[in-house]
Amino acid sequence: MIFGALEAGGTKMVCALGREDGTILEQVSIPTTTPKETIPLVVKYFRGKEIGALGIGSFGPVDVNQSSDTYGHILDTPKTAWKYFDLVGSIQKELSIPIGLDTDVNGSCLGEMTFGNSKGLDSVIYITIGTGVGVGASINGKLLHGMLHPEAGHILLKKHPKDTFDGNCPYHGTCLEGMASGPAIEKRWGKKAVELKDNDIVWEIEAYYIAQALMNYILTLAPRRIILGGGVMHQMQLFPLIRKEVERLLNGYLNTKEIKDMDHYIIPASLNDNQGIMGCIQLAKIALDEVK
Amino acid sequence: MIFGALEAGGTKMVCALGREDGTILEQVSIPTTTPKETIPLVVKYFRGKEIGALGIGSFGPVDVNQSSDTYGHILDTPKTAWKYFDLVGSIQKELSIPIGLDTDVNGSCLGEMTFGNSKGLDSVIYITIGTGVGVGASINGKLLHGMLHPEAGHILLKKHPKDTFDGNCPYHGTCLEGMASGPAIEKRWGKKAVELKDNDIVWEIEAYYIAQALMNYILTLAPRRIILGGGVMHQMQLFPLIRKEVERLLNGYLNTKEIKDMDHYIIPASLNDNQGIMGCIQLAKIALDEVK
Ligand SMILES: Nc1ncnc2c1ncn2[C@@H]1O[C@H](COP(=O)(O)OP(=O)(O)O)[C@@H](O)[C@H]1O
Ligand SMILES: Nc1ncnc2c1ncn2[C@@H]1O[C@H](COP(=O)(O)OP(=O)(O)O)[C@@H](O)[C@H]1O
Ligand SMILES: [Zn+2]
Ligand SMILES: [Zn+2]
Q1: How confident is the model at residue A78 (pLDDT cuts 50, 70, 90)?
Q2: Measuring from each residue's beta carbon to the nearest atom of ligand 2, which residues come in under 6 Å?
Q3: Closest chain B C-alpha to A219 CA, distance in angstroms
Q4: Sequence-distant (≥ 6) Cβ neighbours of residue B290 within 8 angstroms
Q5: Which residues cross the membrane (chains A, B) (predicted)?
């Protein structure tokens, strides 16, 4: 059985074909412009490929509540062309196959839990630090949904005493995304994150914000493991800095075996930046199992 | 069928008998001293009462993971006499009935979801602001467990610009509990919270911290409803202040129908401070159903 996988992002749509074991057979990328232009190209790619189901990991906010009237629609987004667009419906109408949907970051979380470094764990969070900051979570073995899905890239933080940057989140200024995303780093220092590799204070400040957020997620979600992915996390020197700062902030408060083994508690994504698309394969598989 | 309910707190053990519909038939309070003194009194109370099961809502941290070796034990707590004490085991040995266990705040959350203001919702959080600050949560219809249970009373916050208090959490200083618990209010202002009723700045600062925490919980847990209980929340003037501050902080970011109806989104506990003990009745019922 071949599954279709669609990572629907704000700048591009990654379309792939894959097998149940996570193998990616082929992959193409289509620019995200307007639904009118982009969706027909996506549909054209999958048509005739004999996929058994399609899994979509979408940018948000998106309605992932299956019992809602607007299930599968993009919600109130600054990408105005996509606002309230019926993403799942418009594809299902053309392809007539089961479609699974979640957020891109819940998808990545699922990818790591199914094929990657967190197999067998019931409670995991996945955080991407890239153009934006997104958080996916699985709690009691189920991807976290509720009123909506996590939007925890926007939690509020204390400012680093040496940081004079005012943040670049249009909604909250100094939220996590406003302080720690790739574009925030670039705006604060006037250079791309990748060019700042050897500048220690950049990563001290970056680790300070990420660690504060992790501390709050740990206390709120009680994950058994935390996975950090996205472009900025390719700076591997961040990991020891973040771990140390989380320990400093917790200050002995949580004494679990997981926390005591910090090097295996806060870890990098393990699937070569394919965790998202592999998660979509698994979303497709689950969607097919559900209709069987 | 009569159920036993035990709210195990740091200063007192509330023992009660109740019916499946949440009716409390009788209730006594036993001071919490040492396990050696306190547990026999608790056992003595329930013995011979012909209860079908017992539900315990305990102070934390406590091991609520049923597949763990130390399930039912108190974990690393500053109350040294109780550190690593086998709470469930020591009672079960004497009473030989099914015992359900969760944290006191998860218990309160369950109480409100079963008998109170949040019936039928799958995703609810309950926060108590009292001697400490505790958070219980139900996600996808199940009480939140993972590595541990939520300890979200200790999340980190930005300081109010007019606040010179350094916080009184021995672990984190200015975490939510350190800034907003009853004792924090008393230490900051030199008077008990209840005596400060007419002092506006007290409640402005209090609402500022609570709202910041709620903003982070909303973005992380995506609850469909937020219930605020505990002694401090008897100051009902806090509710409009908190709602307004949450709206200011979110700044239009989440546009759900729940958020648009703020007066029904952030609400007081509804069970006359019996949400905890009524939740224990439900924990007992669930424990009995599980062995059936
Ligand atoms: N190796 C790297 N080191 C530091 N930052 C990087 C690196 N690669 C990409 N970035 C930053 O990450 C952001 C892009 O994130 P990425 O996860 O690749 O994509 P997106 O979030 O758009 O899906 C950009 O701001 C970029 O500057
Ligand atoms: N009506 C009230 N107004 C303001 N604060 C109160 C009120 N009643 C109790 N408190 C404060 O709440 C704290 C006790 O919280 P409570 O929820 O009653 O118990 P606990 O948290 O110990 O279970 C104390 O610090 C007390 O000062
Ligand atoms: Zn933001
Ligand atoms: Zn604290």
Answers
A1: confident
A2: B 9, 128, 130-132, 182-183, 192-194, 230-232, 234-235
A3: 5
A4: B98, B100
A5: none
Tell me how far the alpha carbon of residue A272 lies from the centroid of ligand 3, in angstroms.
Answer: 27
pLDDT digits (tens, 9 = 90+) for B225-280: 999 999 999 999 999 999 999 999 999 999 899 999 999 999 999 999 999 999 99
- Contact between B75 and B63 under an 8 Å Cβ cutoff? The reply is yes
Q: How far is the CA of A243 from the centre of ligand 3 (A)?
A: 24
Q: Where are the domains of chain A?
A: 2-104+273-291, 117-268
Domain B117-268, CATH number (from 3.10.450.50, 3.40.50.1820, 3.30.420.40, 3.20.20.70)? 3.30.420.40
Q: Smallest Cα–Cα separation from A116: which of A4, A269, A230?
A: A269
- From the list A274, A194, A175, the residue with the least C-alpha distance to A236 is A194
Angle, helices B200-221/A200-221, rounded to nearest 10 degrees? 90
Q: What are B43-82's pLDDT values in tens digits?
A: 999 999 999 999 999 998 999 999 999 999 999 888 899 9
The residues lining ligand 1, judged by C-beta closer than 6 Å to any ligand atom, are A 9, 128, 130-132, 182-183, 192-194, 230-232, 234-235
Superfamily (CATH H level) for B2-104+273-291: ATPase, nucleotide binding domain (3.30.420.40)
What distance, in Å, lies between the first and last C-alpha atoms of chain B? 14
How far, CA to CA in Å, does B9 sit from each of B69, B155, B257, B282?
23, 22, 37, 18
Which tokens is B212 given?
């910041």
Q: Are B49 and B58 in contact, with CB atoms under 8 Å apart? A: no
Whether A284 and A3 have beta carbons less than 8 Å apart is answered as: yes
What is the predicted ipTM? Answer: 0.97
Please report the DSSP string for B26-58 in residue order: EEEEEE---HHHHHHHHHHHHTTS-EEEEEEEE
**Average pLDDT in chain B:** 97
Structure tokens at A262: 């910090």
